[in-house]
Structure formats: structure tokens, C-alpha cells
Structure to design on (506 residues):
């Protein structure tokens, strides 16, 4: 690449990474990624002929993640997760320790069946609401919130389909889902257990031994609590109006399926069947990734089919169309993923990645253990100092540039896939945000705000 | 195939955690022990604040 073009590639890369981490005024990271890509394409640093290849690598992964998020939006709209908080308390049988591990289990499963961002966005408000109703002080809420966020992020490692970066990197190194999971499932479970265990040890003094066996809340009224004003949601739940103005609050609490939000499930019989059916579709879709990828079916097709089935079931059952998907789905993921890949591609073409690849290649020398340790360290550094998506892309490109044997390369990739899953947010507390919602930088209100 | 089975088993665990209280739902009765964890209080309904959440 000519020196001027290399300079442009470096400058655009540096500016994009800084803006993605900084996010001035809440700027979506898709904006610097898209702007950088447009500059690079406009100046001819990335030839238009490369774009189709780049989209081929990124598009499938982005569609898979989008279909998963679409499923979580539909499920949430139906009200499937409405009972999760209650069940966590009920299953804990009055034990704070059991509640902690139940929270860990829920967050783990949510990431397994949705992606890690969807898991965080769904479970964090549920946890905050639950802890608020349990009247936990902010200090006592922290163990549950930390464990929930950490486990939800780390849980994208075991099966590899819960994380956009993993999906893209697997495609680049030519690893299929079954092989990835075969190598990664058990070690990742051990890692998640370590995270949960360490947090339990660190916070054991803040986890209450005993908690209420159940929680009671006031009658939400026939129209449900869905239309609270923002001011109301800042108040403790117990201080909210328990019944419509002018009426006596004689009614005991009702189950949330009976008086839900006006735009959710109407109070009719048969919704248990709907919930079972939708969960079944999600489980079969996720499990189907493994069957389908073994048969050569692109997993994005399976994901889209699963999302379409959910939308169809909801339409048949509730006569609700896909409007909420169009308005709520984070379409910027596609723009972000494609834009950042164009930028990293140009950065790679400038020769910057090759220097690192040469150095690492000399250190590894074809040894699998050395490959795991060196690539693990390299990705740790990259993930700490930039958003995990460009970090994974650079890491993957340096890995493929080393011309290692396939098995050594895939071992090295899986070493840092485990590292990039939690993207080191908790290990880099000095960073305001690594640019990933996994750290809950935007989804995570302060515990005190909920009480 | 093994992970197909693993995922189905994990799916049962997820269902166990999120399922409604079956007796209350079937009877359609109001339970004194019923929670008020409304959908509005959690989940993607609050996504307005996080729609711009990073990936």
C-alpha cells in the first residue's frame, strides 16, 4: 500500500477506535465505523471489489445476531420473562446464597439462548426490580448485579453463537460450531464457574444469608403498571399507586399474566401454551444451529427461520405484527460490523498487522501451547485497549497471517475467543467503557437508583 | 448432535426459571403470593434507554 494510503488507514483506524471507546454525547459506535469506512472507500484505500468479500464474512454473523435479538424482542413482548424474577426468589427458598446462584444460572442460560447483549438488556432490569422489591440496600445489590453482568458476558464463550465477534472470527479461521463447542464448552464452563465463585468469595459478606421467601407487591390495577411515567419509575415500587384513583385497593395482588401491559398478552386462557411454544422455538433454533451447521446450512438462515416462526406464532396468537421488531431491533449492528471490518481491513493492508504476525509467528514456532499463550496475551492487550470487535478482527488477521498449521491456528483462536468473550471489562476497571454493552455501561443503572 | 441434546436440556432449565406459576395461571385465580414483576419493569420494554447500546 502506498505511504499516503497507509497513513490514511492508520489515522482512520485510530480515530474510529478512540471515538468508539469515548462515545462523545452517547454517539453510536456505528457512526465512526460507517464514517471511517466511507472515507476509506471514497479515497480508494479499500477497493470496491473487496467489499463483497468483506460483507460475505460479516453479513452472516450480523444477521445471526440480529435474528437472535429479534427473538428476544418477541419473547419479551409476549411477556415470557415476566415471571423470572418471581421464580428466582421462589426457587431460592429464603436463602440469599441460593438466590445468588440462581441469578448466575439465569444469566448463563439467557446468554446461551440469546446473545450476550440481549441477555444483559433483559436480565439487568429484572434483577434490579427484584432486588428493589426485596428491599436490598445498594451495597447488597452489587453481588447480584456484578455476577449477573459478568456471567452473562462470559457465557458467550461456550457455544460461540452468542457473540458477534466470535461468529466473524470463526468464519475467518474456518471453524465450525460443533468443533468450537467441543473444545470450548467444558473449559468455558470452568471459567464461568471461576468468575461466579470468585465474585461470591469477594462479595460473600454482602450477600444476605436470609431473604424473604416471596415478595408481595400492591395490586397493579386492571390496566397494569405498564404505563408508569418516568417519574414513577424512579420511586420505590411500594410507593406507587396501588389501584386506579378513586377506587379502593381491596383486591389482593394478581398474577402478572392477568393484568399485564396493554400491549402485551391479554388476559386470556392458553398463554401458558404460547409461552411453552415460544420457548420451544427458541430452544430448537439454538439447538438447530449445531445440527444445521453440521449439514452445511448457514446458521443465519436457521436464525432467521426461528425469528420468523416466532413472529408468525405471535401474529396467529395475538394478532401482533412485526412493527416492534422494525423499531426496536438494533439495525446499527450491521453498519457497525461492516464499517469496522472495512477499517480493520485497510489497517491490515497497510502492513501494520503483518509486523505483529511476524513477531508472534517467530515466538510460536508451530507449538500449540506457545500459540495459546502468545495469542491469549496478544488478544488480552488488544481487548483491553479497544472495542472487542476490532480487537478480534486484528487478532484473527494476525493469526491467519502467521501461516500456522490449521490445528495450531484454531487452538490459538479458541484461546483468545475465551478471552474476548467477557472482553475484559471487569479486568479493566480504569476504562470508562470498552465500547461493549456487556459491561453494562449504558444498561446498568446505579443500584441506588432503583431503591 | 451432542450439543443439540445439551441445548435442549439447557432449554428445560430456562423454562423452569421463567415459567409462570402453573396453578395460578390455570385457575386464573388471584394468588396472595403473586409477584408484581411486570414486563414493564424489566426487559426490552425499557430498551428506550438502551436502544443505542453499544455492541
Amino acid at each position: 500500500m502506498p505511504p499516503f494510503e497507509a497513513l490514511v488507514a492508520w489515522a482512520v483506524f485510530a480515530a474510529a477506535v478512540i471515538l468508539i471507546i469515548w462515545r462523545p454525547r452517547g454517539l453510536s459506535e456505528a457512526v465512526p465505523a460507517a464514517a471511517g469506512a466511507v472515507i476509506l472507500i471514497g479515497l480508494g484505500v479499500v477497493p470496491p471489489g473487496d467489499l463483497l468479500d468483506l460483507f460475505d464474512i460479516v453479513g452472516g454473523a450480523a444477521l445471526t445476531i440480529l435474528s437472535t435479538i429479534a427473538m428476544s424482542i418477541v419473547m419479551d413482548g409476549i411477556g415470557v420473562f415476566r415471571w423470572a424474577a418471581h421464580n428466582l426468589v421462589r426457587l431460592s427458598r429464603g436463602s440469599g446464597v441460593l438466590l445468588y446462584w440462581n441469578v448466575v444460572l439465569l444469566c448463563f442460560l439467557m446468554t446461551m439462548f440469546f446473545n450476550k447483549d440481549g441477555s444483559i438488556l433483559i436480565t439487568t432490569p429484572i434483577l434490579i426490580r427484584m432486588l428493589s422489591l426485596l428491599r436490598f440496600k445498594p451495597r447488597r445489590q452489587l453481588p447480584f448485579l456484578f455476577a449477573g453482568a459478568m456471567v452473562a458476558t462470559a457465557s458467550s464463550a461456550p457455544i460461540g453463537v452468542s457473540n458477534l465477534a466470535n461468529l466473524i472470527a470463526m468464519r475467518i479461521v474456518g471453524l465450525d460450531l460443533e468443533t468450537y463447542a467441543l473444545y470450548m464448552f467444558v473449559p468455558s464452563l470452568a471459567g464461568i464457574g471461576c468468575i461466579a465463585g470468585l465474585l461470591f468469595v469477594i462479595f460473600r459478606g454482602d450477600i444476605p444469608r436470609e431473604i424473604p421467601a416471596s415478595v408481595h407487591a400492591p395490586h397493579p390495577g386492571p390496566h397494569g403498571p405498564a404505563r408508569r411515567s418516568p417519574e414513577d419509575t424512579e420511586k420505590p415500587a411500594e410507593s406507587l399507586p396501588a389501584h386506579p384513583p378513586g377506587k379502593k385497593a381491596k383486591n389482593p395482588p394478581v398474577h402478572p399474566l392477568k393484568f399485564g401491559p396493554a400491549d402485551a398478552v391479554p388476559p386470556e386462557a392458553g398463554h401458558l401454551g404460547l409461552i411453552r411454544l415460544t420457548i420451544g422455538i427458541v430452544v430448537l433454533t439454538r439447538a438447530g444451529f449445531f445440527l444445521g451447521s453440521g449439514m452445511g446450512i448457514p446458521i443465519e438462515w436457521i436464525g432467521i427461520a426461528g425469528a420468523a416462526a416466532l413472529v408468525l406464532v405471535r401474529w396467529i396468537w395475538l394478532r401482533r405484527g412485526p412493527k416492534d421488531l422494525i423499531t426496536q431491533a438494533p439495525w446499527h449492528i450491521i453498519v457497525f460490523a461492516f464499517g469496522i471490518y472495512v477499517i480493520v481491513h485497510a489497517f491490515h493492508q497497510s502492513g501494520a498487522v503483518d509486523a505483529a504476525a511476524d513477531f508472534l509467528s517467530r515466538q510460536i514456532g508451530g507449538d500449540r501451547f506457545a500459540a495459546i499463550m502468545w495469542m491469549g496475551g496478544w488478544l488480552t492487550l488488544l481487548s483491553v485497549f479497544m472495542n472487542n470487535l476490532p480487537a478480534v478482527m486484528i487478532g484473527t488477521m494476525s493469526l491467519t497471517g502467521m501461516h500456522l498449521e490449521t490445528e495450531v491456528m484454531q487452538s490459538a483462536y479458541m484461546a483468545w475467543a475465551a478471552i474476548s468473550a467477557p472482553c475484559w471489562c471487569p479486568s479493566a476497571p480504569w476504562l470508562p467503557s470498552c465500547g461493549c454493552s456487556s459491561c453494562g455501561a449504558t444498561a446498568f443503572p446505579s443500584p441506588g437508583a432503583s431503591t | 448432535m451432542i450439543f443439540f441434546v445439551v441445548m435442549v436440556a439447557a432449554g428445560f432449565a430456562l423454562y423452569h426459571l421463567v415459567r409462570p406459576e402453573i396453578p395460578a395461571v390455570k385457575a386464573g385465580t388471584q394468588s396472595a403470593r403473586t409477584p408484581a414483576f411486570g414486563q414493564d419493569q424489566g426487559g426490552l420494554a425499557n430498551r428506550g434507554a438502551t436502544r443505542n447500546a453499544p455492541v
